TrEMBL record:
The keyword Lyase does not apply. Signal peptide: none annotated. Its cofactor is FAD. Residues 317-399 form the Reductase C-terminal domain. Keywords: FAD, Flavoprotein, Oxidoreductase. It comes from the Bacteria. SUPFAM superfamilies: FAD/NAD(P)-binding domain, FAD/NAD-linked reductases, dimerisation (C-terminal) domain. It comes from Albidovulum salinarum. Residues 4-298 form the FAD/NAD(P)-binding domain. This is FAD-dependent oxidoreductase. InterPro entries: FAD-oxidoreductase/Apoptosis (IPR050446), FAD/NAD-bd_sf (IPR036188), FAD/NAD-binding_dom (IPR023753), FAD/NAD-linked_Rdtase_dimer_sf (IPR016156), Reductase_C (IPR028202).
């Protein structure tokens, strides 16, 4: 067959395949996905889809007919079992598929609780795939008791859904505060209050000792010895990049599949993009878990597979929807030493500085601040913090 083979049919894989065709590539394109569903959006799974506000068809990244119209072969429900770099082939469902170039967009998987603490009991869920959310959706009945393990964005979004649907929600976070790994204390405080206002019990500095139950979860013993009754559990304790195929094929691994600035792995015929790939960034190396990165990096890789030699310059952005709050994030806050607050109440933004340099912004219900902050960060501009903090200042003027 030859041509380009893409392993992984999520956001990155779909973006890469579509970009190849948009660039005029007319060779064979085969995209292989482990899940049976065509490429779909993951972020709404823990928001609108779980709430019942979004139908399945609206999750799809493209109309199902798009792939056939573009001459892109989709192999779904088809886990790849091996890559033979010498023969330039992949094995899937007993079939051997040859490639000229291969792209790995394998994504990531959620960390699960070990069986030793009850992680294999029925009624214990993670949020990653369509099948995950379809399996847990019937559990969301008003009055039931939901325990969420982990106070990151996935856990908080699930808590918001539970509270809106009338469940009794308890969220535990073993760190001193929710969102500690990803956000400033000010953002943690904002969302802690939002959840408290909706009746969610948040227990920080509190881990899970074990889940209890005979076959199905019915309770939890917390790290402080407290015991609580639960009807079901959602685990949101992070994700790990899916690198097993790359490892078995002998590719270099470094916090994901190691790529150069162009998205090329240690094998010049194999590329990687999305959650599974780490890449050079500002003198270091990072891996980004976001829709924006999956799209942008995959599209650059598509260009480079066709000879562009264009380095990828990440422009990180993220979002989260909880209750009536839309959080929008631009930039990376790593190494910040100062937070500048603009606004107050429901509409507020927190601006991350390291010295005089603007690194990132968290904007809650303030799309204008987010858009201007994003453009400033991408342009390398760092406005005077006093101007940012002054509610009377014209942010748009800072772009001139």
């Amino acid at each position: 067959m030859g041509g380009i083979v893409i392993i992984g049919a999520g956001q990155a894989g779909a973006s890469l395949a579509a970009k190849l065709r948009a660039l005029g590539y007319d060779g064979e394109v085969t995209m292989i996905g482990e899940e049976p569903a065509p490429p779909y959006q993951r972020p709404p799974l823990s928001k609108g889809y779980l709430l019942g506000d979004m139908e399945l068809e609206r999750l799809y990244l493209r109309a199902p007919a798009f792939w056939e119209e573009q001459g892109i072969t989709l192999k779904l429900g088809a886990p790849v079992t091996a890559i033979d770099r010498t023969a330039k082939t992949v094995r899937v469902n007993g079939e051997t598929i040859s490639y000229d170039q291969l792209a790995l967009t394998t994504g990531s998987r959620p960390r699960r609780l070990p069986a030793a603490v009850g992680g294999d009991l029925k009624g214990v869920y993670t949020v990653r795939t369509l099948a995950d959310v379809d399996a847990m959706a019937p559990e969301f009945e008003a009055g039931r008791k939901l325990l969420i393990v982990g106070g990151g964005y996935i856990g908080l979004e699930a808590a918001a859904v539970g509270a809106k649907l009338g469940l009794s929600v308890t969220l535990i976070e073993m760190a001193p505060r929710i969102l500690q790994r990803v956000a400033a204390p000010e953002t943690s405080d904002y969302f802690r209050k939002a959840h408290a206002d909706h009746g969610v019990t948040i227990l920080e500095n509190t881990g899970l000792d074990r889940l209890t139950g005979e076959g199905r979860v019915s309770g939890a013993v917390l790290s402080d010895g407290r015991e609580i009754a639960v009807d079901f559990v959602i685990v949101g304790v992070g994700i790990t990049p899916l690198t097993i195929l790359a490892e078995e094929a002998g590719l270099e691994i470094e916090n994901g599949i190691r790529t150069d600035a162009f998205g090329r792995t240690s094998d010049p015929a194999i590329w990687a993009a999305g959650d599974c790939a780490s890449f050079p960034h500002e003198g270091g190396r990072i891996r980004l878990e976001s829709v924006g990165n999956a799209i942008d990096q995959a599209e650059i890789v598509a260009e480079n597979m066709l000879g562009a030699e264009k380095p990828y310059a990440a422009k990180p952005w993220f979002w989260s929807d909880q209750y009536d709050v839309k959080l929008q994030i631009a930039g990376l806050n790593t190494g910040y030493d100062r937070i500048v607050t603009r606004g107050e109440g429901a509409s507020v933004s927190f601006w991350y500085y390291r010295g005089d340099k603007l690194l990132a912004i968290d904007a809650m219900n303030d799309a204008r601040a987010y858009m201007i902050g994003k453009r400033l960060i991408e342009a390398g501009k760092s406005p005077d913090p006093a101007v940012i903090a002054d509610p009377a200042s014209d942010l748009k003027a800072l772009l001139k």
